[in-house]
Every structure is written in C-alpha cells, then in structure tokens.
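Researcher: Let's do a round of design. I'm pasting the structure tokens now; please hold your answer until I've finished.
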C-alpha cells in the first residue's frame, strides 16, 4: 500500500525507504480525492458518485481514525468500523 502522504511503502513489517520524490508528495485530502471524486469523473459518473452530497449514491466506509489528523505512520493501523454499499450496511466491525 502506498502511503501517499509520506511517500513510503508499508511492507507489513514497517515502512520501506521513500519511493516518492520529495516534491511529488500529496496531502491526504488529495489522495482521498484521487480515490473518490477523480475516479467518478474518470468513469463519467461525477453527477452520481464520488462525493457525499444530497442526491448522490453513497458507497462509503467509516474509519476508526481521522486520516486527516493522524500521523501518516499510523495509517496502516486504521480499522474499518463499517461499510455502506448500495445504501445497505454490509460490514460492521465487532469489538
């Protein structure tokens, strides 16, 4: 998994050396946009999906931590609390 905010690869045992050129790193909000609104645009579906807004179809996950406020090194430890797909909760993490 490429951790976009710090430019390193998570190997499962820790972070590998930097794989992204320093000036090419992007902020967490940019990374999230790449996976959401930008993908919807690439599929010509930006009027239906890609954002959380009234009238939009919502497939989403709720995470255990706020990706915008935690240290990038903590991202691999973030858990999925629940997943909504096609308007239905299809996954809920049990404590």
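Researcher: That's everything. Go ahead.
Model: Designed sequence:
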């Amino acid at each position: 998994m490429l951790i976009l905010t710090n430019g390193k690869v998570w190997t499962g045992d820790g972070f590998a050396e930097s794989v992204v050129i320093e000036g090419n790193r992007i902020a967490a909000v940019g990374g999230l946009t790449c996976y959401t609104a930008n993908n919807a645009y690439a599929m010509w579906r930006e009027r239906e999906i890609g954002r959380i807004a009234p009238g939009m179809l919502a497939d989403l996950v709720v995470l255990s931590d706020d990706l915008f406020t935690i240290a990038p090194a903590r991202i691999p430890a973030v858990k999925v609390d629940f997943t909504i797909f096609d308007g239905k909760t299809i996954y809920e993490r049990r404590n």
